Amino acid sequence: MNRSLESSTMRAACVGVWMVCVAMMGCQSGGSQPTAVARDTATTPSPEEFGAWPSATATPLSVTQELWVLCRAPMAGEVEALRAQMREEHGPHADYQVVVRVSPDAMDTFQKGDPMPTGSIVVKEKYVNPDPASMPDKNSPRELSEYAWMAKRAGGWEYGYADASGKPIAGQLPPCASCHARAKESDYLFRGYLNGDR
User: Fold this and answer.
1) In 27, 104, 105, 160, which residue has its Cα 20 to 30 A from 85's Cα atom?
2) Are the beta carbons of 149 and 160 closer than 8 angstroms?
3) What is the per-residue pLDDT across 114-146, written as a single tens digit (0 to 9) for each?
């Protein structure tokens, strides 16, 4: 009889511990810092797809190394380390450029500065040319180094990034979301370059 009582007590304790663990795991998913989630590559914009989309600017924009490397403003202490890394990889006279593309159905809305419709995608193509003297002009063919995108979903913006390997990550990427939060008034998009600002 004691063995039966011990067994049922042990079973109840195990079930209780299991329920607490399940409850704690459920609470973790609602944390304040969303994490990046792998995204189905079938819904990730590819260079072949967005390469045919209209560009938001007439020519590629020359940008600083810091802006090219990061899709956010660099934090204190990062600037010189980034410059040294980029000089080592691409030489001291490298030319960094971006091309911003917008899904065709949303380009007019983007250029007007209005809130983007659900389903819109904005892509920032990133290029580096280690020898700008070899480029006849800014429209010369160049190789895509990496790209970042924002896709407007029913619940807000989803962010994504693909490096030179082409492997994408997407979701509520905290560095992207925190930077773009500064542009809340313009639907989380920085569009100053449409007016010549950089």
Assistant:
1) 160
2) yes
3) 999 999 999 988 887 755 555 555 556 567 888
Domains and CATH numbers, the chain: 35-195 (3.50.70)
Cα 57 from Cα 191, distance rounded (Å): 10
Q: What stretches in the chain show pLDDT beneath 50?
A: 1-42, 72-73
CB crowding 127-154: b at 16 or more within 10 Å, else e: bbbeebeeeeebeeebeebbbbbbbbee
Written as one string, the DSSP assignment of 82-117 is: HHHHHHHHH-TT-EEEEEEEE-GGGHHHHHHTPPPP
Q: Are 56 and 111 in contact (CB under 8 A)?
A: yes
How many Cα atoms sit within 13 Å of 19 on the Cβ side? Answer: 6
pTM exceeding the 0.70 threshold for the entire prediction: no
- Give which of 61, 76, 60, 33 is closest to 176, Cα–Cα: 33
Report yes or no: 64 and 96 within 8 Å, Cβ to Cβ. yes
Token readout for 84 is 């040294």
Beta bridge partners, 123, equal 101, 149
Give the separation between CA 99 and CA 118, rounded to whole angstroms. 22
Residue in this structure with the two tokens 């944390």, named with its chain if needed: 31
Residue 100: which of 195, 191, 196 has the closest Cα?
191
Give the C-alpha separation, 191 to 112, whole Å: 10
What is d(CA 198, CA 196) in angstroms, rounded to the nearest whole number? 7
Q: Give pLDDT, residue 127.
A: 81
